[in-house]
Amino acid sequence: MSFTRKLKSNRIIYAIGHKLNLFCLKFHPIIISFRYIFADRIKLVVNNKKSKTKYLIFQKIDFTGLMTHMLTVLGWLKYAEEKGYTLVVDMSKGENQYKDVNENTWEKYYLQPMMQGVSIDENEVNRILKNENFSICPSYTRYGYSFDRYLPRKMLKLFPPVITFPTTHDYTADEKTQAYYEQLYNKYIKMQPSVIEYVESEYNELLKNEGKVLGVLIRGSAYRDGKPFNHNIQPEIEDVIAKIDEYKELYNWDKIYFASEESKYEELLNERYPNKIIVNKRHYKDNSIADTKYQAGLEYLSSMYLLSRCQLLVAGLCGGSQAAILMNQHNFEHAYVFDIGYYQ
């Protein structure tokens, strides 16, 4: 894990940042309020008065997972659709964990959501910046940050956020929100033909003829022990097993498709449910080797796709389970997601 990623996952660092924010709110309310209110402001740059097209350019530079990238793109698609922008996903600049060379990483896995059939490389992005009307998605948005709740409610009503992203909790707690984003996903998020071929091949090999399959997703112990600040708390393996047994009595599943990076959980389930566990072996967990980065993302995407093709679901709440629910398009016979709060 890189130094940057360690900082991002360190709850002590986040806690210090949180305290600094409170300090600023207490002693410099005018400065911090101004910065806060206009943090996610989206400004249109007009280079071509004759053109009616407004581009919204999303540039993601960090080490979050592929499903989190996709879910964030969905949030900006909602904004672009409402405001009449054409969203361009540009992951050609900076670094991310799936990038091998100077390329648009998004297009290794997905088509451009609003310009399907058009490839956007760094040169095309530069052309848009020079000749077209555009806005850049702000790297910082207000919704979801811990100091939101410390500002007066009247101020929040006077200056609402430009864009709000649903939390993972919203997908399970609010059926309307879930249905809306399922429709948005179905309309705009299209995998590359080569990726579709890969994931369908995996489905045919592993799940197609296995009867009623229960999909189970739980993040590994490294995630649970690290407790990354503000991420969803993951269930204990004992609680997951209890829910698996309950689903056996209620719905009589035939096999379990198990999606997790934790090998000891896989061993435990194989002991408890012999000859019932199906796994999609992910060979490229270490993304430090350049030529494995694409395969790492492909295997992760395939794993979540297979999860979405199961008839039943038991999962810890995280970006992966959220993505699987969207991909499933409300076709699970029954689904249970452990929604038990956030790490602090």
Could you characterize what this model shows?
With 344 residues, the protein is an alpha/beta fold. Helices cover 47% and strands 11% of the residues. The longest helix is centred in the N-terminal third of the chain and has 18 residues, at 66-83. The two termini are 21 Å apart. The model is unreliable at 144-150 and 286-290 (pLDDT under 50).
Observed structural traits:
5-stranded parallel beta sheet, 11% strand, single chain, 344 residues, 8 strands, alpha/beta
> Distance N terminus to C terminus?
21 Å
- Tally of alpha and pi helices: 15
Rg computed from alpha carbons, rounded to a whole number of angstroms: 21 Å
What form results from the Cα inertia axes? globular
The side-by-side strand order for the widest beta sheet comes to 6-5-4-7-8
Overall number of strands: 8
What is the average of the pLDDT values? 82
Give the SSE order as H and E letters.
HHHEHEHHEHHHHEHHEHEHEHE
The helix-and-strand class reads: alpha/beta
Low-confidence stretches: 144-150, 286-290
Largest sheet, described in full? Answer: 5 strands, parallel
The share of residues in extended strands comes to 5-15%
Helicity, in percent?
40-55%
TL;DR of this structure?
This protein is an alpha/beta fold.
Secondary structure blueprint with pairings:
Layout: H1 3-9, H2 11-27, H3 29-37, E1 54-59, H4 66-83, E2 86-90, H5 106-109, H6 122-131, E3 133-136, H7 153-158, H8 168-173, H9 175-188, H10 193-206, E4 213-217, H11 221-226, H12 237-251, E5 255-259, H13 263-272, E6 277-278, H14 293-308, E7 312-316, H15 319-328, E8 334-338
Parallel strand pairs: 1-2, 1-3, 4-5, 4-7, 5-6, 7-8
Helix pairs in contact: 2-3, 4-15, 9-15, 10-14, 14-15
